[in-house]
Design a protein that fits this description.
- Belongs to the autoinducer-2 exporter (AI-2E) (TC 2.A.86) family.
- One of its GO terms (cellular component) is membrane.
- It is found in: Membrane.
- The protein is mainly alpha-helical and about 350 residues long.
- The protein contains 13 helices and no strands.
- It folds into two domains: about 140 residues, no CATH class; about 160 residues.
- α8 runs antiparallel to α9.
- The longest helix has about 45 residues.
- It is globular, with a radius of gyration of 27 Å.
Length: about 350
């Protein structure tokens, strides 16, 4: 049976059809992209455990995967969801009850002699902050069905990534438009980012959050548990981190006339919490992924507005992938230039021999 299209036209139409269909699929799944990103992150985190149990000890793959999913729900999802809901609840409370924040602003103005901003601006900022936090962090009240669907899709994807691991890896190697060495570099970059920004950073953030909460509780700051939770999330941000919590807390104590408490909070923050942060980062850097703080900071600024809380990992990963691809592009150009130079030199020698 004849066709009106030439082979070249058929190829172009095939590629165009693939792009259009892929666009519809991506658009349709855009609301659940966090599920696939979360599955990829959990896959990298739990892959060593799966390898040790399912591949080396020959345990049943489905059983091992089910155990890893239950473990992630109990140890990661539930505590993180609890912390997120606690944080959202308090932020929304302060955004609706702005009197305490306004009183603190007045005391700070009286202490410094400068007007910080108008009361209307402070109220607007607090309301926007409550809305922004609710959007970034998972909230059952804000969309229980979507949250359950995302979790289900994430664990469903994770299950088949482990149970059919060889097929999954072969598919990536086959369809990714990169050479084997480049794929290896990208995989190593993914591993380093997940280790540094999930495992390592979560450990550092947990220690800093506990220390900050304990310090505020010892020096009599109200809602020490809440502010310790805030410190846990803030600690993911390099450089700034927990000083954004214990710094204002110390200054507020000073503005209220509690000199010893304020000085105590600031001294513990500078001497203990910051040094513990630096010490832990140095100890974990080489072991759990050596990612430059500037890459992490730029990635968080890029990723959080786009991907929400997962942007803490996805953002730095995108920046790292960009750097890796730039390096690959530079290496391939140098290799091509060298091949062209060798070929040109060969042509010149052949021309000289003919003479």
């Amino acid at each position: 049976m004849t066709t009106i299209y030439t082979p070249q036209q058929q190829r172009i139409l095939l590629i165009t059809s693939l792009i259009i269909i892929a666009g519809f699929i991506i658009y349709g799944l855009s609301g659940y992209i966090s599920a696939f990103l979360g599955a990829g992150i959990l896959y990298v985190v739990f892959r060593p455990w799966f390898t040790a149990l399912a591949l080396k000890r020959h345990w049943n793959r489905s059983l091992v995967t089910a155990l890893l999913i239950v473990f992630s729900i109990v140890v990661i999802i539930m505590p993180f969801l609890t912390l997120s809901l606690l944080l959202i609840d308090r932020i929304q409370y302060y955004s609706q009850h702005t009197e305490d924040i306004l009183n603190l602003a007045k005391k700070a103005e009286e202490l410094t002699g400068y007007q910080i901003t108008s009361q209307q601006n402070i109220q607007a900022i607090l309301r926007q902050g409550g809305t922004y936090a609710s959007r970034l962090l998972p909230s059952l009240a804000g969309g229980a069905l979507d949250f359950i669907v995302i979790l289900g899709l994430m664990f469903f994807t994770l299950y088949f990534m482990f149970v059919q691991q060889e097929t999954f890896q072969k598919g990536l190697q086959k369809y990714l438009p990169f050479k084997h060495d480049t794929q290896k570099e990208l995989g190593e970059s993914l591993k380093n980012n997940v280790n540094a920004n999930v495992l390592g950073q979560a450990l550092v953030s947990l220690v800093q959050g506990v220390l900050t909460g304990a310090t505020l509780w010892i020096f009599g700051v109200p809602d020490a548990l809440f502010w310790g939770t805030v410190a846990f999330f803030m600690a993911f941000i390099p450089v700034l981190g927990t000083p954004l919590v214990w710094g204002p807390a110390g200054l507020i104590q000073l503005s209220q006339g509690n000199t010893s408490q304020g000085i105590g909070i600031l001294v513990v923050g500078v001497v203990v919490i910051i040094n513990i942060d630096n010490l832990l980062r140095i100890m974990l850097a080489k072991r759990m992924g050596d990612i430059h703080p500037l890459v992490t900071l730029a990635g968080i600024v890029l990723g959080v507005p786009i991907f929400g809380i997962l942007g803490l990992v996805v953002g730095p990963l995108l920046v790292s992938y960009f750097i890796v691809l730039i390096q690959v592009f530079e290496r391939e150009n140098k290799k091509q230039e060298k091949e062209v130079a060798i070929a040109q030199e060969r042509v010149e020698k052949e021309a000289e021999l003919k003479k």
